[in-house]
Amino acid sequence: MMGKRAKKPAKDGDKSGQQDGSSKACGSTSAGGRRAKKEKEKDLIDIAVRDLVLNMSECDNTDVPRREQFRRVVLVKYLQQNVESMYPQIGRETYRVPDVHINKGKEGEINQDGVSELIQPTDTDIRSDRAHSFVIDMVYQLSKRMKETKIGPFFIISSYEYDHFLSRLKASFDEKLCPYDVDVNFPNGSGHDRGEIDILIVLPKHVIFMEIKAIGDNFGDYGGDKLIPVRENIKKSTKQLLRDQKVFDHIMADLKLQDFKCTDIVALPNLERQCLKEALRDEDLWEKCQGIKFICKEDMPKSRLNFQEDFHVFYKWWIDNVFPEIYDDEKYSLIGLSQGRHTNWSSLSQQENLNTENEVNQMSPLDEIKIIVGRYIGFMSVVRVCNNSNTKLHRIEGVMEGRRKGQLVWYVGEKFANIVLTPDQKRYLDANIRLGYLCGPPGSGKTVVLSLRARRWILNDDNFVVVVNMYRGAPGRAIGKQILNTITSNSDKNKESFLKYHTMEIGVDVSVDKFNREEFVKEIKSRWKEDLGDGGQRVMFIVDETYVQSYWNTVFQALRQEFVNSAMWCAGLYGKQPDQFTSLELTKVIRCPPNVQHILLEIDWVDDRKKCYVTDSTTAFLPSNGPQVLTIRHQEHTEYVNVSPSQCPLCGNDLVEIFRKLQVRNPGRAHTEPDLRMWSLQCSEIILLVNMPRTLYSPDPAGFLDTTVDKYRDYMRTFQDCPMLQKLNQAGYPTKVHTNLSCSDLVTKKVQDVINVTWIYTYQGLENKVIIFLPGDEAMPDNCSESYFTEAALNIPCPGLMGSEVKEGQENVDMTGRQTSRGDSESGNSEGIGVSTDSDCSDSDNTPEYNKQRRQMENSQEGMTCQGKLCDDCWCSCEVEQPCPSGDEDLRETINPAQDNSVPFPEPKSTPLEERIVSTADMNRYTRWDKSNLFISGSRCTSQLILITR
After folding, report:
1. What class does CATH assign to 626-807+837-861+901-949?
2. pTM for this structure?
3. Burial of 221 (0-12, 13-18, 19+ CB in 10 A)
4. How far apart, in whole angstroms, are the C-alpha atoms of residue 568 and residue 465?
5. How far is Cα 276 from Cα 282, in angstroms, rounded to an integer?
6. What are the pLDDT digits (tens) for 240-297?
């Protein structure tokens, strides 16, 4: 791993920067003062490596530098510890690094709207990404099958760039932090400084290199001799595989891995085997391909979405060509790799001390795997998933590395949250349309276009914008506040003040007899008076989530009749455009990953809308297919199967286990690992969306299902002390239950590091990285017919709720049922315009409906519900002016543990995440009602969707 080099004199002031994507050395000057703090944060891994190298180069008591052998042993131990910390179940579970395939797309520079436009990737990149993601997904599925055999689960590394190998260690040497007689070398001609490994699979005493070529998928458009490009691709693959093996042999030479088996595979998922045979008739090429195995189109599943139907073809190829020992009946075992029943795994135990060279070379097979993995993707190397050098362009700054599953969940969420305009969105923004109606499925980017259109209206001509935040049962909801924030937010304080002055948000309760037209119009006109122009020609009204026009027709008529020359842009899902409005259709779902969209496609009940879903990220130039959808199967918790999931502590245990495997930050206990301190999920990036039971609804005259504010609030209160959330709180993941219908503090208050728990429709239009869906129905309630729960037409909820949300004196609501605010959503207004406090405090928890629901839940649990207080080291679980942690001292609640009368919850049972991937059987456990509401919930997810099933 190390070699010799001539001693070089150090130059005064020489502070070489990190190489291969690493940050600069300590003490070096940042490119700009604005980035200094961020660069210091991004340097955490470099600091850890630097400290280790300095320790290796220290002198002992005789002032003699420590021997190279000692330094090598320290490195071996360090890399092994990296792996043990990052992959604690290595040998027992499948690991894939990075956990999802990231496509090669690019984003352009930001424009005046603060967004970038999509730069279409090349056809070669699209084809390469499609082939690579297909093959790597199937290899992952193969590992799940092999886990039940003596082969065991794989450790899979993909898209690994060679110039990042041990790049931090090399940078430390260049910074003169280690003795000059040490270096990291590669064999001449290895090509170590370019290219990448497509796939590396690490097994005990066995490594597999795979190169993937997309050749064959465009032969229909190819007019020349098809064998020429086939042979060229095969030649490239042979060179890459030779380099892969040559570098591996060299960098692992100190481990004396002569008995390691190496398998070379070229995957050609689009090429028919007959075409391969014809290409290999070339004698020179045939000679170069000796020992290489080929996967062709016939060896792959026909469909990546329904791969289960013929996955046995792919599995059989691997058994025939790579793992023939599985056919050895005498040695065949169903015991997994980690349980010591094959390949000498009785010596799996880790070496406790590595003090001599002999001990370095006397490792168990599992220790060898850890060392191999550590050298490729440990902290000495860089595992880059993106590199944004211009910090003004993207939400993610600098180098983003992804060694762990949770980091990729975080990264995918960031990528899908970026505002990257599609051609349709850009065309609508550029169009000179005064009356526009955006329509399309959830997640198609309607709200983005509304917000950007409003910004342009203000910035281009000093015009004015009114965000009409309507809801039924409450004066507006969170999405209206979010649109206001998006319109007015800007890094330039002067421009932000300008935008806030020119923007107004007005909340309106459109319930029957709640809307006062005269006061509504007066409030708007009094804001800017004569500046509005003739007939309001300088004002634009923005209305999101309009639903069916009959629910807001009074507001619409007031706007069109009182401001006849105004502009107006609306967006909706169920409704149609009003008269004289131009329909602006968005036909692709782009705000959530294809793996989530696959679920939406299965449950959507409108055939025309099914065409809008993207199930392959490369077809719509999306960043990735995203992480697999996960499931918590409440039906497997037999002792709690007769209660709802929220009343099941084992469902809470499962969530805790998933959060830990996704490395979610515990607000009360910060991560210590440097990579997690830079890139990891926070509790505030998780939201639990609650579906109310179908039985709380009844049909209204318009044909929708309707319920009341009181029933909604009473149902949400039942979560405030439920066992599922108690388990999260006790594990250090604080939760906050929202009982207020408008829930504007989800976007207006300082973000607290808590897991918000709210109703699906209070969160409509908003987004988050991790969405947890909690069903409302039982699998099939006995008192309802099957058609009642299977027909889509009978299971569409009404917009908003019947009844008044607040009582007199609770909120700053005038007699018109409105709330208003300036461009600034914070409380306090120097111009006297009312601002919602949106408190989730409720004046009483003793309504008849609430008491009835509590009695039903408590009785059904047969005494298992915890009715007492939480222990003193738990965070609060409800939002009734109780403290919730976000790093502030006043958010901590202390409760006397002596008052804890709860029954002890069972300890969690570990389940690999690969066993939680959603299946058709899981989806079949949902009623039509839950599917209809999952349709809304899933579209709010920018990365990881977690389903709880009955």
Report:
1. alpha beta
2. 0.82
3. exposed
4. 9
5. 11
6. 999 898 888 877 877 776 678 899 999 999 999 999 999 999 999 999 999 999 999 9
